[in-house]
Amino acid sequence: MNLLITGAPGAGKGTMSQKIIEEYHIPHISSGQMFRDAMATDTPIGNLAKT
Questions:
Q1: Which of 2, 15, 34, 38 could form a disulfide with 49 if both were Cys (CB 3.0 to 4.6 A apart)?
Q2: Domain assignments of the chain as residue spans, ordered by start
């Protein structure tokens, strides 16, 4: 099962994601966290994410 949850800041994406995780026991991947982690590194991908 693949789900994509989008919305503006404060729309409840994290809250809905948490409820879905608890109900269906599926993994959670946060693209926002992936970008923040990449930007914290000095790698080509991290530098590209900063631009």
A1: 38
A2: 13-50
